[in-house]
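User: Fold this, then the next.

Assistant: Folding the first:
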Amino acid sequence: MIIIPAIDLKGGKCVRLLQGREEDVTVYSDDPVATARRWADAGAELIHIVDLDGAFSGQQKNLEAVRAIREAVDVKLELGGGIRDMERIDMLIGLGIDRVILGTVAAENPELVKESCAKHPGRVIVGIDARDGKVAVRGWVEVTGHEATEFAKTVEGNGAAGIVYTDISRDGMLSGPNVEATRDLAASVDIPVIASGGIKSLEDIQNLLGAGGIWGAITGKAIYSGSMDIEEAIALTMKHGE
């Protein structure tokens, strides 16, 4: 399991939201490039970037920051937030983004998942955000009738290279990840599943490692607030893999 630091962009700044609420925002840095370098220097293999303005509006509004991050670090980057058509997917992959994350559009336009996965094999993953086991879309504002585990099987069948699974109720709350739900979702598919939401401590990393079958863990607020040291978390996962 790898540790994946998150950079959430809003108005060109690094922020965190509580449970995805646009109004509950904390600004952690005015310099996304310095933040990306910090996580890369700490040993991160992959950085998870979310364009929050894109998630809420459906249009990327932080491309300058994304481009600057890409130029500044050599680690792999994955990007989500408002990516809803092939033109945008092509453009982001052309920018050097290693993997794009489809969220809302994966639930609303499964054909785009199929087409983009066929065109860019291994470069398209799907974000499944769930509240009480049901898929939520449009910046988590709308909850659909899709069961998360069934939807995971569908996106796997459509060619997705992986899944980022977020329990919305845990996100930004430092309340611990939903290990059981993440483990169950990972067990339902054969593609990599990344846990997201609620990680606050090394104990949470240990619990996710112990669950088995989880490919990665995204951490945001914990490493920004100092409740978890990213280098210690990476060391823990490496020790577990020995």
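Now the next one, as you asked:
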Amino acid sequence: MRLLFPTQPLPIPATDAAAHATSTPWPVWAGSVASPVRFAPLAKKAAVRLWHRARDFDRGTHQPGHHGGAVGPTALQVLHALIFDFLNHRTGRLDPSYAAIARKAGVCVRTVATALARLRELGILNWVRRCAESWRDGRFVLEQETNAYAVLPEGQWRGYRPPAEPPAPAPGTCG
């Protein structure tokens, strides 16, 4: 009986050995999904309010002698770029690449990765890794796509306390 798949890996030509040393059959991140992502619309006023709440959260958690608060200045820059440069308020679509975020925020790509991780840790942002399925030369291929991001409401942020309601005016001051 003949096996469809060889039990031993096929030999790699010497010229291509370096190129194939780290390649995998499907070079996508673990946990990537191929199914379509549904984006939730976010009105511009609501997005602006979330940005101001995140900035207030950072200011409210500032420690003397430290640079920034819980969120941090670079994470705020990245969040600003996501909300004001990439978010489609009508459809909710938010899926820029790390390089595009870095260009708009004025930081390097590695800083974007660190800032996004910080925003996810605080519950301000969440994302889904995506990949695309296709057939190329008769072979099934998975390709990595950009992440699909979502800005979460402030009720889900870790460590955030909403601002106190202002006191009501004294009865004799109105009108």
